[in-house]
Design a protein that fits this description.
The complex is a heterodimer of chains A (about 290) and B (about 160).
Chain A (H helix, E strand, L loop, with lengths): L6 E3 L4 H11 L3 E4 L5 H6 L7 E4 L9 E4 L2 E5 L4 H6 L1 H6 L1 H8 L4 H4 L4 H7 L5 H8 L3 E6 L2 E6 H4 E3 L2 E2 L6 E8 L5 E9 L6 E11 L5 E9 L6 E5 L1 H4 L6 H14 L10 H18 L5
Parallel strand pairs in A: 1-3, 2-3
Antiparallel strand pairs in A: 4-5, 5-10, 6-7, 6-10, 8-9, 11-12, 12-13, 13-14
Helix pairs in contact in A: 11-12
Chain B lengths: L1 E8 L2 E8 L4 H8 L18 E4 L2 E4 L12 E3 L12 H8 L9 H14 L5 H8 L10 H11 L4
Parallel strand pairs in B: 1-5
Antiparallel strand pairs in B: 1-2, 3-4, 3-5
The chains are: A alpha+beta (about 290), B alpha+beta (about 160).
Chain lengths: ~290, ~160
């Protein structure tokens, strides 16, 4: 199929951007890489009146280290994230999770921020920013507002982004060597939608005991599901089979998975425990 | 609405007026009559429409024509020259890298991108490059064989 007619804009300045967004309100859609949006437009699931391309606005792009934080601009392509030296060394878990998105040809054009704003429940990056407790900056003509990743996603394909507002950038706090990360995803084949996936961040004390675990599940519920485990639940334990079994059992008991044509709810409950346990076993650290 | 765009297509400058909602693949096939690039699914899954934009393999069914204003586009038609098909195209024919040929133009563009990006692509990198292409004839082995055969030559 082919998309319904719309008007294409590629503003050269933010003033121009805000004025187009002002004029079209809800009927404007932001275009970054378009790798999810254009597919939905081709199928006429989405029929905006205006498509506003951010390609000429460099302040939405780029990847950089700013003091103790790492910034990924919303329009940085997924390919640039997975190949960036800072990301590969400081946030290897982000590079790894990004590599699991679609195919290389999709990641060449698909963007980091686009994936977040699109908020597909089965996509990797929303879970990444939740597990790593990122901060998102949203910009509109009245200025910026800062939203925690945990408050950003409101449901399937929906976020707190208002009409006239654009996701500008994402900040990761600098990873400490005492945090171990993990990622695991179950999909029918490479590039297919996740049937269940998990990102984990495990903080370990100097003595080797686990202090806290954050896990975000994707492809399980209608938005990423966050679990936070502290010492009260975990007790004094090292990251070994017993602890991993305890945590995956809690996830299995608590999660309320969706049912769809790929997977039943019960199967997904089982997969949730599997992906959590395999993510925790990975123990990836920043270099 | 329509836009006037100019871009480089297989090293030739193209200036053309396009409808805002026209897909790049439709511009190539319907307006410019370069029918080497195929449309399979039209939602980014099959890979048949893959072309290079500024040297990078992308889906031309997930890109609107106005987005390529000022860019360089390469299609399968750009691979062969006066001296005939390129080595990878010859290898495809010799190693049974195709049967029906529907997926071939897209696959060729992803493989060309890979040769420019990596000097000696590993088996994993080759699999990674072709993973986003559906081929229902070859079982992929012939495609990988063709690529390896052509690697020694300049693509």
């Amino acid at each position: 199929m082919r998309p319904a007619p719309f008007e294409y804009f590629a503003p050269r300045s933010t003033d121009e951007l805000w004025s187009v967004l002002d004029k079209f309100g809800d009927e404007a859609k932001i275009l970054a890489g378009g790798q999810s949006l254009v597919a939905l437009m081709n199928l006429r699931f989405v029929t905006p009146e205006a498509l506003v391309d951010l390609k000429y606005l460099p302040h939405f792009s780029g990847i950089s280290r700013q003091g103790s934080t790492i910034r990924i601009g919303a329009t940085a392509t997924q390919r640039s994230v997975e190949t960036d030296e800072t990301i590969k060394h400081q946030l290897p878990i982000v590079a790894l999770a990004t590599r699991s998105i679609g195919h290389p040809q999709i990641r060449n054009r698909g963007t980091f921020g686009g994936s977040l704003a699109h908020a597909d429940p089965s996509s990797e990056l929303p879970a990444v920013v939740m597990a790593l407790d990122c901060t998102l900056v949203l910009e509109s003509k009245v200025g910026e507002r800062i939203v925690r990743a945990t408050d950003f996603f409101t449901g399937p394909y929906t976020t707190v982004l208002q009409a006239g507002e654009v996701l500008k950038e994402v900040f990761f706090s600098s990873p400490s060597s005492s945090t171990q990360y993990g990622f695991y995803e179950i999909a029918r084949c490479s590039g297919a939608f996740a049937m269940a996936g998990a990102i984990s961040a495990t903080r370990v004390s100097d003595g080797g005991f686990v202090e806290s675990i954050r896990i975000a599940l994707f492809g399980v519920g209608s938005k990423p599901i966050l679990f936070v485990f502290d010492k009260e639940i975990l007790g004094m334990q090292i990251l070994g089979p017993e602890l991993i079994s305890l945590v995956s059992q809690i996830v299995r008991d608590k999660v309320e998975p969706l049912h769809d044509m790929q997977v039943t709810s019960d199967q997904r409950r089982h997969y949730s425990a599997v992906v959590v346990s395999r993510a925790l076993q990975m123990g990836l650290v920043s270099q | 609405m329509s836009k006037k765009i100019s871009f480089l297509l297989n090293k030739k400058v193209i200036e053309i007026k396009v409808a805002d909602q026209m897909l790049l693949v439709d511009l190539l096939r319907e307006e410019l009559h370069l029918t080497g690039t195929h449309v399979g699914c039209a939602y980014g899954v099959c890979g048949a429409c893959t072309v290079l934009i500024d040297g990078v393999a992308i889906r031309s069914c997930l890109t609107f024509a106005p987005q390529i204003d000022g860019a360089e586009v390469e299609t399968v038609e750009g691979l062969s020259g006066d001296e005939g098909p390129s080595p990878i195209q010859i290898a495809m024919s010799e190693c049974r890298g195709l049967q029906c040929g529907f997926c071939t133009p897209g696959l060729l563009m992803s493989l060309v991108e890979l040769t420019r990006r990596a000097d000696k692509p590993s088996d994993h990198e080759i699999d990674d490059a072709i993973e986003g292409h559906l081929c229902r004839c070859t079982g992929y082995t012939g495609i990988v064989d063709s690529f390896k055969k052509a690697l020694g030559d300049k693509l």
